[in-house]
Amino acid sequence: MHHLKSGINLAVAIVLTITLSTSYGDDDKAFSPLNQIMDHQLNSDIAELVNTYKDIHSHPELSHHEQRTSEILASELRKAGYKVTERVGKYPDGSQAFGVVAILENGPGPRLLLRADMDALPIIEETGVSYASHVKSTNAAGQEVGVMHACGHDVHVTTMIGTARALAANRSSWHGTLMLIGQPSEETLDGAKAMLADHLYERFGTPDMVIMLHDTNTLAAGTVSVSSGNTAAAVTSIDVTMRGVGGHGARPHATIDPVVMAGEFIVQLQTIVSRQQDPLDPAVVTIGDIRGGTKRNIIPDEVKMELTTRAYSDKAMKIIIDGVKRTAQGVALSAGVPEDRQPIVTVLKEESGPALFNDPALSNRVKSELAIALGASNVSVEPPIMGSEDFGNFGLPDRQIPVVMFRLGAMDPAKFAAAQKAGKPLPGPHTSHFEPTPELTLRTGVTAMTSVAVSLLQL
What we know:
Low-confidence stretches: 1-25
Order of helices and strands: HHHEEEEEHEHHEEEEEHEEEHEEHEEHH
Strand order of the largest sheet: 1-2-6-3-7-18-8-17
Protein name: Amidohydrolases: amidohydrolase
Distance between the termini: 11 Å
Binding site for Mn(2+): 151, 153, 187, 214, 430
Cofactor: Mn(2+)
GO molecular function: metal ion binding; N-acetyldiaminopimelate deacetylase activity
Number of domains: 2
CATH class of the largest domain: Alpha Beta
C-alpha cells in the first residue's frame, strides 16, 4: 500500500513545496519555480481567507448544530471544483449530522483523507478582538451559554478551504484522490462515529492515509510539531448523580445531603489517579460540571456531575471507571443512603473515544515534508498530550488505516516570545482568551497541509 513506502523522492518533494512569505527565516527552505507560483497564489488568497476565518469565528455553532459553517465549507469546496455531499453522518438517535465530504479525483494513485472539524464550545469569548463572537445558545442542559471557537476549529475549516484551492489549482503536481472531510461534533466526540455510521467509507471510498492539523498555543505561528506513536489520550465521559433525601436547610438532620456527598466524592476521586493508578501510565479524572439545588435554604434531592477521564492504556481507563463507581457507592454507603437512592453512574459511550496513535512511518514522511516546506528549524517534536480527539476513529479499529495529526502554531510570534521569556504560557484552547493570530497561522497551515498532501499523493 502507498502509505507503507518508507522513502520519499526528495527531488519531487522539493519541487512541490509551497513556500511561506518571509515572516520567518527562509534559510533552510526549498525553492523552485513552482514554489513561486504557489506562493503568489497564496498571497492572492490570504486576505480572503482571513476574512473567511473572521466570519466563521464570529458565527460559531455548537456541536450538532454546525449548519452555517458546513454550508460555507461546502460552498467553497464546490467552487474549487470538488464533488461535494452535505449532511453526511447519522447519530444514534437517528438525526442527521452536518458532515461534509468533498472528492477530487485526479487519476490513479493513493486516496488521501484530510479532516477539519467545525464545531465550537459553550464559552463566553473574552479576547476583545473586533471579530469576537457574541453568539448565545442553549446547551443540552437547557442553560443559556455563550458560544466561541475556543479550540481553533475556525482555523481548521479555513485552512481546509485554502488547501483545497491550492490542490485543485495544481493538479499536475499530484496523482490520486483527495477526500476532504468537514467533521461535525468533535467536542462531543460523536462526529467521526456519526460519519462512519453513515457508511462514509462504503459511500466515498476507504482512504490509504488520514491527516489532520490542530492549532495550539504551545507554538508560535509559522511553526509546527509532529509526534510519533501516542499523541492524544483516550477519553471516557461519565455522568454521576449523587442522590440523597432533600429538605429544609435549617433541618439538615432530617435529610441526607447530596451536596455534602458530592463534596466528599470529589475529594476522594483524586485518589484514583494518585493512589490506584500506576504513575508511569498517565491518567486524568476531571469534574467539569456540577449541578444541584434551586435555593440557598433547600437541601436538594440530588446533585449531578459530569466527568471526563483520560488515559492511554485500556488498563488505566478500567481502573478509572471502576474507581468512579466504587467511590460513589462508598460515599453513599457512609452517608446511610437508602437502597432506592443509591448513586447513578452512567458511562457515555457516545461521548468516548480511542487514543490517537500517529503511525510512525507516516509521521516520518509528514515530518520530512514539513521540514522541506517550512524549514527544519520550524518543525519540532512535542510529547504526547492528555487532550483527546475523535480523529483516531477514522483509522478504524486496530489501526487499520494510518493516521497522523500534526500541531500548528497559532500564537503571535512576538507575544509568544515574551510569554516564553516570562515563563507564563499564553491562553490555550478551551479558554475564553484563546486568540490565534490569523494571517500567519492560516498561511502556515495551508502551506503545511498542501505540501504534505502533494508529497503523499504520488504514484
